[in-house]
């Protein structure tokens, strides 16, 4: 009986220790994940137009999660002309 409560106590403190250790790691990851998902959803509903050649394209999944800058433009590599450009978003 005494052994059981001792075991329970040590499991409880171990869980608390693990939680306080991983919480500072998990929270920023969770926030980044929410930001990435929001950006990805936004990018899915927009095409991006190359500032150099005017070609419209869908960004790659990695580029899609990168944040927007300066009101809707993204720094993307154009698949048509290959230049890295501030591409402006246009609704699909
Ligand atoms: Zn281009």
Which series of helices and strands comes N to C? Answer: HEEHEE
Bound molecules: zinc ion
Oligomer: single chain
> How would you write the strand order of the largest sheet?
2-1-4-3
Q: Can you count the beta strands?
A: 4
What number is the mean pLDDT?
82
Question: If you had to describe this structure to a student in words, what would you say it looks like?
Answer:
The structure is a single chain. The protein is an alpha+beta fold and 92 residues long. The chain has one domain (2-91). It is built from two helices and four strands. It has a four-stranded antiparallel β-sheet. β3 and β4 form a beta hairpin. The chain is rod-shaped. The mean pLDDT is 82. The site of zinc ion has 8 residues, from loops. Zinc ion binds next to loops.
Set out the fold topology.
Blueprint: H1 2-44, E1 46-49, E2 56-57, H2 61-65, E3 73-77, E4 84-91
The site of zinc ion has 8 residues, from loops.
Task: Write a concise synopsis of the structure shown.
With 92 residues, the chain is an alpha+beta fold. It has helices spanning 2-44, 61-65, and strands at 46-49, 56-57, 73-77, 84-91.
Tag the structure with descriptive keywords.
92 residues; 4 strands; 2 helices; 4-stranded antiparallel beta sheet; alpha+beta; binds zinc ion
């Amino acid at each position: 009986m005494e052994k059981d409560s001792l075991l329970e106590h040590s499991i409880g403190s171990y869980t608390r220790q693990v939680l306080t250790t991983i919480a500072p790691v998990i929270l920023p990851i969770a926030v980044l994940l929410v930001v990435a998902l929001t950006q990805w959803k936004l990018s899915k509903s927009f095409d991006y137009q190359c500032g150099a050649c005017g070609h419209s394209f869908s960004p790659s999944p990695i580029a899609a999660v990168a944040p927007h800058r300066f009101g809707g433009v993204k720094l993307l590599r154009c698949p048509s002309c290959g230049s890295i450009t501030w591409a402006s978003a246009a609704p699909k």
